[in-house]
Protein 1
Amino acid sequence: MNDSLRLPRQIAAVAELRREVAAARREGRRIGLAPTMGALHEGHLSLVRASRAECNLTIVSIFVNPAQFAPGEDLDRYPRTLAADLEKLATCGTDVVAFVPGAADVYSPNHAAWIEVEGLSGVLEGEFRPTHFRGVATVVLKLFNMVAPDVAYFGQKDYQQVAVIRRMVADLDVPVEIRVCPTVRESDGLAMSSRNAYLSPDARRRATVLWKSLCLARELVASGERDAEAILGQMRDVILSAGDVEIDYVVLADADTLEPVAQIAGPTVALVAARIDKTRLIDNEVLLP
Amino acid sequence: MNDSLRLPRQIAAVAELRREVAAARREGRRIGLAPTMGALHEGHLSLVRASRAECNLTIVSIFVNPAQFAPGEDLDRYPRTLAADLEKLATCGTDVVAFVPGAADVYSPNHAAWIEVEGLSGVLEGEFRPTHFRGVATVVLKLFNMVAPDVAYFGQKDYQQVAVIRRMVADLDVPVEIRVCPTVRESDGLAMSSRNAYLSPDARRRATVLWKSLCLARELVASGERDAEAILGQMRDVILSAGDVEIDYVVLADADTLEPVAQIAGPTVALVAARIDKTRLIDNEVLLP
């Protein structure tokens, strides 16, 4: 860390955030929002850079949203690295504000209003985490209402999350543009994720099978294969080759509706979720974009 | 109708509405929204007048929201009186715009995102109309996002609706002020409602028992009665005296949470719902405000 870099301004209170954004808007500045749960990595920073490229003020929210964790999930041990996060944001340049609310700033004790995105929220991740996307959609709408950004930035890594948010924005007429930034990967292809910190060195090595299975799918499609089950069978073999891995799903789905396809005809996304040791990882790749 | 009054400007497309509002906001004008389903009566017009008193542009939305009607309810026969509505709005003065979207402007065929306000939506009206408030909350949030009003106006006649909307606005950080205007009544006390048009002359006469029961509750409380069941028993007697009336509920509830109270201690609201012939009517009165 370069000591000469100034840490970004940090705001905890919604009222102060609103004043900051309103002042920027009065000056005609374009506002970008990158919602995060902290434990920032290059994937997050790519969102911040994308925002800085087209906005004049970038709000990076850092909030580990309890509503998107189910009981028994990793809410308590989710990595919280605020000091390091702020230093990383400092490397992204100026006009970046960190919005770091406390849990009490976000949810009142009698919180009762939830966004339900039917259909999209119940499949894939939703089968394993039934209340996850309700928590995601709700906190994202809250952040949109707190910040009132012109543009909001999300990573393609969370493909289904993006689909849920796009649907929410369209259905509820939320006046924000959604930008999706490519998944940022480690040099061996593993998608960057704050949860990679949970992986033991051995599990970390084996975790590359997710990306390998997606590359295989891409190659098979490029070579003319269109039968989903043929592709999925080979993908599963690649993933299981890691040993001591449990597959939650391996699916080829319509890139918009996320409905599984039997034959690849139009834009299709390959989505995988697996547990390596006890760490649940997801990844995806668009085929025939 | 005075022929010299100019009808309000009428907008159907969301994009045009947004442009109109954005232009007004650039001029520093304060924007009010009065959401209605049309069939305007003095209750609605009181919202418009309240908005004109503190805003510089008033949007009156007129949209019979299918999502708040259940199958078998009165969506098809709900009164639609646009020409008369516009003439009534013309009497309210200038700076009023009627936003009259078509159903296709509001809901896409694959609409999937809904606002659920737990608790408040399930009691009272929610027991008889389980999907009603989900439809109300969703369309109101959509209208808020389309119009981006500074202030929105609702009638106290729909007391539970106001409670649901207030909860939604607070929980989802929607940047709008909610104003509640007093129920406007006919000279004999019947709360104005677009559904009063369904009443036969005989049912119309008998419908005054709702208001009479609320006045009785107010008098009993004023005279020191604090036992809810004692008050409710007498309210029911008044309503049933109309003959051929079916009570859905008569409740004394906490004015904020809408939870029934056994003893009146703090702010309490009396809420009644009954069907006279086949017309379902609701009314309410705050006791000990």
Protein 2
Amino acid sequence: MTHTTTIHPRYQETDQMGIIHHSVYPIWYEIGRVEFCDVLGLPFHKIEEKGLRLAILSVHSQFIKSAHFGEVYQLKTNITELSKVRMKFTYDIYNSNHELIHQGYTEVAWLNSALRPVNLQKLYPDIYAIFDSSLSKIR
Amino acid sequence: MTHTTTIHPRYQETDQMGIIHHSVYPIWYEIGRVEFCDVLGLPFHKIEEKGLRLAILSVHSQFIKSAHFGEVYQLKTNITELSKVRMKFTYDIYNSNHELIHQGYTEVAWLNSALRPVNLQKLYPDIYAIFDSSLSKIR
Amino acid sequence: MTHTTTIHPRYQETDQMGIIHHSVYPIWYEIGRVEFCDVLGLPFHKIEEKGLRLAILSVHSQFIKSAHFGEVYQLKTNITELSKVRMKFTYDIYNSNHELIHQGYTEVAWLNSALRPVNLQKLYPDIYAIFDSSLSKIR
Amino acid sequence: MTHTTTIHPRYQETDQMGIIHHSVYPIWYEIGRVEFCDVLGLPFHKIEEKGLRLAILSVHSQFIKSAHFGEVYQLKTNITELSKVRMKFTYDIYNSNHELIHQGYTEVAWLNSALRPVNLQKLYPDIYAIFDSSLSKIR
């Protein structure tokens, strides 16, 4: 499954180079992840109510072209790796000319509310199955 | 008591007008409040460990001159009102020419960890007394 | 005219009290302003291309109830004052139970690209007329 | 050369997991870079006045332990790669127990004010020489 989010950059997200500041992209990734989980019927705040937390292990960003206020972007989110304890989300951002301007990914691990790692497949096999069915083979 | 914080604006805090974005100032106020409490021997995270939370009731900002990356500013924080349940912090920001470029204030209330209002004077008379002794008469 | 923006708080906008951090609201106001101008046929980036800049003179926020990740809010933006050189935008935020949780306003002035004040009515009478026709009498 | 920055996390940088949100680290990296350049006698805003811009090509973050409000961290910044057109900054963050909690790096390229790539060694051999003399061999 690929989820597409339309991004309207905020004026506050610009910097004095006149572009979207690079620290904003991980925030956009998070919007993509959250919406991806919504579409799967697993809203983040419901996941947190079950006592699960999503820990970020790593974030990677490649900047191809800069983004600007007043433009509209498409953020494409996929899950490209899944194991009992970890997942990898990947992100591709396109401008209105369908040019790829940015790529990123985050590796995440599942924790309990005490922030200890958990085996998602064991603890919540139903949730694991849903993520497994959404897995993309694209990367 | 007046507490002075030296502010070095972050590049990320600029916007495409080439100035510090107006939404940054409440974050600077918070730095002022946190340091003010540190100086009083009441670090925020210790206050939170006691089960107290600081709720923001209002924030007010007046912009006189814009602030810029590469400049250095002095943020002066005072407590100008105190009651059993509320406090008012005021902020004055000066540039390196000692010109006042910004004024603001926040009104805050004390809550317990369930986010219910509490009477600070009753619950923690020692903390109340410390804030009372730091009260400025300047505004 | 009243413009309504649907706000889905970002996880990144939460703080360790479990609520949306108070510094986020001026960013939401800006989204309301930007969309308001879009609806009027005056997109912000087009306004900036004409050499105009919008300077923030003041921001005022009243917090009634806290906002949370996972909830959806309606932000209602109005222009409630207009003169040759200044405008006042007001904001009301409602939760999904139609309860007012927040009110704010910003006073803004029009500048040229050298960040000097301009008389909008004189310089761009057409833009002034559009804002004038959108003026709300509600506050 | 290694430059060390003391980081006092801001309350606003926390999220509802009670940790510093992962999107904050690239902002801390930027503080490290800016101070690194200050120490070299090349303040960023002076570099920008010469018509140079620093473009971010990539950002990479590895999260080992989470960071918290109320704690103090040491951010160690190094330049670990340098060519005529690019540089690599690396970052190591330690907690007050001298444990490494985070590692990151950014790859940057030099641009002119029209945001076109430039050969720094050719255009500003003096600036290039200063960066070259600060190069670390550690990674």
Protein 3
Amino acid sequence: MVTRHVNFNAGPSTLPLPVLERAQREFLDYEGSGMSIIEHSHRGAVYEAVHNDAIERLTRVLQIPDTHQVLFMHGGASTQFALIPMNLRNDAGSGDYIVTGTWGQKALGEAKIVATPHVAWDQSVEGRYERLPKQDELNLRPDAPYVHLTSNNTIMGTQFFELPDTGAVPLVVDMSSDILWRPIDVSRFAMIYAGAQKNMGPSGVTVLIMRKDLIEGARKDIPKIFRYGEVAKANSLQNTIATFPVYMVRNVLAWIEEQGGLPAMERHNRAKGEAIYGAIDGSDGFYRCPVATEDRSVMNVVFRLPSEALDKKFVAEATAAGLVGLKGHRQVGGIRASIYNAMPLDGVERLVDFMHRFAQAN
Amino acid sequence: MVTRHVNFNAGPSTLPLPVLERAQREFLDYEGSGMSIIEHSHRGAVYEAVHNDAIERLTRVLQIPDTHQVLFMHGGASTQFALIPMNLRNDAGSGDYIVTGTWGQKALGEAKIVATPHVAWDQSVEGRYERLPKQDELNLRPDAPYVHLTSNNTIMGTQFFELPDTGAVPLVVDMSSDILWRPIDVSRFAMIYAGAQKNMGPSGVTVLIMRKDLIEGARKDIPKIFRYGEVAKANSLQNTIATFPVYMVRNVLAWIEEQGGLPAMERHNRAKGEAIYGAIDGSDGFYRCPVATEDRSVMNVVFRLPSEALDKKFVAEATAAGLVGLKGHRQVGGIRASIYNAMPLDGVERLVDFMHRFAQAN
């Protein structure tokens, strides 16, 4: 019998147990093919069926319209920080950046190296980003090649619940840490991108959902391996993709469908968020969340205790109780509970119980 | 009981059965940590131990000197085709390219986009590259920033057994399809790079072995995620690496050490090569290998039958007999048997038996 810890890691992160069990069961002999899925050629019929099934399931789950294409790429979201301006800049420079935390800062940093970007918003208080901008605070250019933002900030614990209006300017969103958390209207996005290792699978593959006209208009004066147009033309098999991560993404999508799709994910995620934020707000100030109430992430819950010594004690005792990965990011300290799709409600309830007991004892 | 086929795929390719069995056994609970290795944070102690163990084992197996550093990167060898000139070009352009097949052509193609390269050798006969150059055929520049070559050509079935002398110019070698096939003197190379999916593991990670002075001198005017200097400084954890592929590479390296290291791999690989080439040369011309005898690859054995119809029949009957992945690459046709480290001698013997029976019957 396997002892399974409750894993609050920010990514790579917990995955649905049935998905792990399926991978284990199929690992030596995938569907009677006489070999592991990881030994199949990326150009063979067996892997290609998995690859296309992943694309079809993502299209179904997110209701991706015909105007958009799904791509798989290497390199994580951080590689997209460079590839987005390389592909989408115009001759005047790169896009408008709404900077709401570390990931937005990094995206802006790479854009500065590629071609001059424009900062549409970047407000930090003592190095922290504890709220998100309102529409009228954004300094957007009507002729920008794109607007970039991060929909959920894993480190700061903020999340956009309403997206800014960018008019006719293509909206490009790093959705690494909240893709698939609830239904969205994909037609509002020119490009969504996300590393797999939070809501979709293990690390090693990045999912892009791009408007076809944006793909077609992407630059062709960069190395071929980096061109969105070439990736799209090759159905993401220009070279060997990380086949195991794509296989796992397919299996996670199958699990989401079995659970009832994104409406079920949203109910499940909101229930978990309410349970933890309820425990924080009902603790008479013992636990404090620094994030503005309306911007509190339901994927990464960030909070602090009355002292750093208590933060440490909390993490140590939680770990001993099988609640792991709760230490806050080194940039902000405190506690962080990452509660992506695969975190069961039971795991959150165990954390909430622990929080009550810890507060009473301390 | 699992029926395991003999898998001659060119990559992703067959992996050692004990390595697959270990991954399956450990999949739900890695070393009692209460979670799968793919659920561990890339910044946590458990994954970091795996990551560093992979580097240490590679260093031991290849006897990598202190002058060199091991890096893991995303994107496959094809991404290096762009990153090498981006990082290593000088103000006059990029390096000298010895083009011995499709992969060299692609590397040259990306270099042309980044900064003017120089062709040191490129001979094809009707689009084929059936032999490798001799030293005196190479047109090398003494002031080139680097010389690039492909040590083994998966499509053409050629392999360098003696490397060209490039003098003081750094030698950069795409060793994707023959790294770890035998002991080498790493000090002769300024940079070795290889996608994992032939001799090292599943697809999703690229291994670089680079001279430290080359890393330090690499360009800093490119996006940070692409800079060799940044990758090295972060011990390849600048962003989230594909953790499962790295874990598998570690396990393949452990298997190589158990087998007796690279001297044992070389004996094993030479025995397999002799068995298949022996069957070809002893077939009275029924099987023909187009490659010059001294350049015949012991990783990818390419041969043809008297007609395309017989090629097809051979592949179909072999597949029915559990010998899969033998169809030649679409560029050259015929048959290709990829016999990397993980291909057991028994698998090659089964192929040789089949070749005898097929030649007699046809």
Protein 4
Amino acid sequence: MKIGLIQLNPVIGDFASNGRVIKEWAAKAVAQGAELLVFPELALCGYPPQDYLEHPEFIRQQNLLLQELIDAIQDVPVLLGAFTENPSRQGKRLFNAGILFHRGEVLFTSHKKLLPTYDVFDEQRYFEPGRTSQFLQLGGKNIGITICEDLFNDPDIYPEQLYKTDPIGLLHDEDELDFMINIAASPYTLGKDKTRIRDFGSICRKYQTPLLYCNQVGAQDSLLFDGGSFVLDQTGALCGQAASFQEGLLLVDTDRLVKMDVAPTSDLQQVYDALVMGTRDYVRKCGFSKAIVGLSGGIDSALTCAIGCDALGAENILGVTLPSPYSSQGSVADSLALAQNLGITCHTLPIADIFAAFKTGLAPFFGDREDDVTEQNLQARSRGVLLMALANKFGSLLLTTGNKSELAVGYCTLYGDMSGALAVISDVPKMLVYELARYINRAEETIPLNTIDKPPSAELAPAQTDQDDLPPYHILDPILAAYLEEHLPISAIVEQGFAEAVVEDIVRRIKINEYKRKQGAMGLKVTSKAFGFGRRYPNAQGFRE
Amino acid sequence: MKIGLIQLNPVIGDFASNGRVIKEWAAKAVAQGAELLVFPELALCGYPPQDYLEHPEFIRQQNLLLQELIDAIQDVPVLLGAFTENPSRQGKRLFNAGILFHRGEVLFTSHKKLLPTYDVFDEQRYFEPGRTSQFLQLGGKNIGITICEDLFNDPDIYPEQLYKTDPIGLLHDEDELDFMINIAASPYTLGKDKTRIRDFGSICRKYQTPLLYCNQVGAQDSLLFDGGSFVLDQTGALCGQAASFQEGLLLVDTDRLVKMDVAPTSDLQQVYDALVMGTRDYVRKCGFSKAIVGLSGGIDSALTCAIGCDALGAENILGVTLPSPYSSQGSVADSLALAQNLGITCHTLPIADIFAAFKTGLAPFFGDREDDVTEQNLQARSRGVLLMALANKFGSLLLTTGNKSELAVGYCTLYGDMSGALAVISDVPKMLVYELARYINRAEETIPLNTIDKPPSAELAPAQTDQDDLPPYHILDPILAAYLEEHLPISAIVEQGFAEAVVEDIVRRIKINEYKRKQGAMGLKVTSKAFGFGRRYPNAQGFRE
């Protein structure tokens, strides 16, 4: 059977546009000989629709589009993800469903059984878990249809199971399967493209059954869906894969699966492509085309700016350098060199007079108190106001440049350098920032070497460097990963060879800066635990470790 | 049986302090003759602990405190809320439990069956639903022990049930009960104090069984737990109630329930007290004691300032008036009058020079473009920077003054008037702001009448008023409530008598301002649907209604 896996990049709730794109892809796939079309999880409304699922009008419009597609695509059967209404008065009102239709009729509906409710996922907020069979006969084939998380509870693969049932096991109890199809909306995180193939390959081998995996692509706010839809044969070998980070069609002949020999994409390239797609889709889906980046001469703003150029085109990026009385000569020179390498316009807008006006206004109240972090924040906020004014006046979005390491410990100014629409690298730890800068420079020097090599500094006080206040990043970053991603207690982190006082101080800073991050710009998620709505902690708390 | 219901105000994760307070209240209740002590849901760690529940160290410390209390309180049995670990490798790792201990031993553990996962609640993120019995025999009494949401699924009371089981029905199937106890962490919303007694009273009548209800008190970030613990007899009549919005003990003799005749507290008083408690607890639990309020001469900042004074004491509130070139004379005069009435210090800090410095800096880039919202934002942001500088220098928190109506439609400036630690009235619609101002003035004129009577204005452009840009608030507010709280489609709101173009414009504004609210200060929740983490919508979306 020839099956077209179509990895779609929908816009949440844009039923008109999503429907049009689905019809276009359907026509292409049919023209190429597909006998069954497969679209991802919740393809009609996009994933995740969040609380729009509580709006009757949203439900009505999805159902209208579904009926429109059932009527419009008649040539071949279509399997797609959509929510359906729970007819019972008990339980959540919706199911997360896979629907198969053909010749104007729905032939089959299966409901997602495992509803992820952790990290960025809130599915039990909206959906009732499915209890119906996921087994389908079509064109003489026995097919198991599951939805994303349904693949993730095999007791032989996962030492702890989040759920009490294993849908794959249940399916194989029902009958001999010719192959499985999984429709998904699975966001990218570092290395996940490889673990998917490894883990799902184990399932294929265990049941001696091929798997066709159709994943959403495109960014939705923080979430970066990588697509990369694939087919594995009954030994778990990769026999075909769509490109990552772009819409596309993968045509699979289930009767002729041939193992392909490809080198996997490097993690650096994957994470870079993810950030570029995330920036492009956020700006575009919010209805903008241009962006502004404040350039400090440092590596964070240089990386952000390079990503912005790849996402939107250099002609749509405006760099602004805003030297203060404490800025080094190098900071402006390095920014201008970067702008030249990238081919962007760069303005210079000194903040000394504005900083002075603030100090003059506050002088009657501050008296002869010594300068402290207040004056550093005043500079960062003067810049934030100027950048936002340029964004407002010219209809651009401001890209924020902070990295994950500084956001974790609060080495950033709320309403200052944290201002902006999108925090492009807020989930990229500083050591990975360096790696990505070198990745960008792999062919030629785009990010000035001086920017990469000089000691990092906020330049908000005379001769300041980050390491006046923070441990070196090669020490900070692994401590942050251990605490934030693995939830290790301080004692276990110290056992890894870090000084207890350092670990304690970092953990303390992470906690007391929760309020800053809650008001920070939305960031693109590339690690297993990003700041943002997938990480939920109180501001007011008294937990001492 | 004499039962002490102790409504506790814990701090999330502050096990040392929470344990100390529990022991103090236990001693008081025993001294007053209590034969059973009852503490609220998750009393040891506070509710909601959020992702701290994923930290092994957090779990360890709670379990240590539980053991310490089991050893320390030996005189009478104690029932309290705590999480317990799920011994199975399948399902979520924790249960939300009620634990009864006496003489050094745990006698009974029951698990919460219904796990709210909607609005501000995320319990299925952390907990496995309970399947054990909630039936307990103690001191010759048959007692049903349920936890908060377990009370909320009676098919005779709720037309739609969110869950498939009704724990109260299951309990009464087991045996004849003498009374029920519910331990809760149920946050206040407008009118909820009355619906609780009404709905739970129906359950008492249905089963002819009294109910003792012990609720958490105190604010935890956005959530305002009102306490108001009570006892209802088997007819559903109120026979005793603890005060709202303060820690306290309600001693109940279950053999002598006598109906009490009390006038219910007015909704205005309840919501005012809720906001005062919310402000006090947020500032205190974050380790601060002082706050700053920017005074515009308008009613929002006046109400916020009055709440701040009741919460922290006038001596801990600093008012700041920041006139711009477009401010009316009245705005400073009204602010100073308010400050005098409240007995607070008030600084005046004109922003003209700072505004001019920004305009001068930007002039080379803005050229001869006309003034637009950019220049309005520059003024609001100049104020935001100054207020934050005062807060930074003097170790205060800045209270934000925006109301729900303007936040809904984006009539506010990100990084400007939206700056601050806590948005005191961000869930108070403008019409309720007026009612609360009159409530404050019920005995004497605290908020100047001129502030209440003048047309609302942001004063960011010559002769500007809110109604240049927005419908009158008595029209805006009901449209917002219909859309935000009831999820009504535009057509249904129009059927209520509002102009279609007005409704469409408001709904459009709500959507395009999602990004502003996501970066706004945390607000206190007093309605059934507040902006913040209980309302989850994408920034990038294309839903057209």
